[in-house]
Amino acid sequence: MHNIARELNDQIRAENPHVYELLSDLGRNLYYPKGILTQTDEATEKAYRFNATIGMATEKGQPMFLPVIQETLSQYNPQDIYTYAPPAGKAKIRAVWREKLLKDNPSLQGKTMSQPIVTNALTHGLSIAADLFLNPQDVLVLPDKLWGNYTMIFGTRRNAEMRNFTFFTEKDEFNTQGMKEALLAQKAQGKAVLLLNFPNNPTGYTPVEKEAQAIVEALLEVAEQGINVAVIVDDAYFGLFYEDSIKESLFGRLANIHPRILAVKVDGPTKEEYVWGFRIGFITFGDASSVVCDVLENKTKAIIRSTISNASHPAQTFVLHALASPDFEKQKEEKYKIMEGRALKVKEILNRGDYQELWDYYPFNSGYFMCLKLKGVKAEELRLHLLHNYGVGVIALGESDIRVAFSCVEEEDLEELFKLIYQGAKDLA
């Protein structure tokens, strides 16, 4: 183990040994090297005559660029799009995103967390968390209603053992008891990683207030039983809360609540600001010790430096420009209303009872999606039948679930969409 990594681990152990125990073998060996980038930073600050350190071409005091590219980006300073961004991201966008987190999540007020670290969108952020906290055969606890790529990120890449609990109870409430039991089953190991995704993909569900309180209480009980828990909060669809759901991230309620609970927030503008192709996200750590947060940032930078080096500088600049615009909040609210309108329209259509002979639906109150529970029809057969005979695309999940993304269907077309799904199901029933 490198001496720097050993020093970082000693700092974590001194501040919060439970977080050290949560780290994977890779996580313990990670450190951000004092190499070329550090020397470059020093030269940028002090080399007032010539700076011959960085692997980048310059011309007349600016980054070198092709006019054929710059003409499409003329609103931006070349310095803000062509240069390398720091491994942890532009300092300004990290600070602005932190301010946004505090504004959007009242429960974070007065709590200690790291500065958000820029990732190559949320998949990369989740992968970083997997590298930091999961050894082969370590247990990842998560609901059975999940985004399929979790299996690749945590299971295939890190060889973690994925333990699912049933998402909904028979009363169609979030299954907090099932979550708690799955975590308590790890008492002999003394460690577990929990993954929570709200608004949930695929169901479109976010807990209501009493469920959110129950989740926090259950995790405190698990911690009191001597189990260290890293809670990864996947907030990909944050902000798209409709009806009765809580209106903030569970990260705010979980950060700093117990020495054995480390809260990890993975989020970004990908879905929040409708910039899927920009591939910009953030990972943020919530621990009562600022030293622990700093060390985890250092180790995260090591992962970034050793994989992608840094995230897209232009994309960070574009997002920062949008966040600073006086029109940002108004425009975002307009898009939110469109999404909310679609979700409520879907619920109105389904609540009429016209289709209940062929399906029920899981509760949904947020996000991009909702899921149908088919009766007497297999999901994959229906998916293919709809695609080939009606020109309708949906996602089949398991034996009987169909995911419908109302996010990409105009509100006025939703009526026809569900009529076609119903007709297809009736063909096969």
From TrEMBL:
CDD domains: AAT_like
Key word Transferase present: yes
Stored InterPro entries: Aminotransferase_I/II_large, AspAT/PAT-like, PyrdxlP-dep_Trfase, PyrdxlP-dep_Trfase_major, PyrdxlP-dep_Trfase_small
One MF term in the entry's GO annotations: transaminase activity
Domain Aminotransferase class I/classII large intervals: 67-419
Key words, A-Z: Aminotransferase, Pyridoxal phosphate, Transferase
Chain ranges passing through the membrane: none
A single BP term in Gene Ontology: amino acid metabolic process
UniProt entry tagged with the keyword Hydrolase: no
Cofactor(s) the record lists: pyridoxal 5'-phosphate
Recorded family membership: Belongs to the class-I pyridoxal-phosphate-dependent aminotransferase family.
Name used for this protein in its record: Aspartate/methionine/tyrosine aminotransferase
Source species: Desulfitobacterium chlororespirans DSM 11544
Upper taxonomic lineage: Bacteria, Bacillati, Bacillota, Clostridia, Eubacteriales
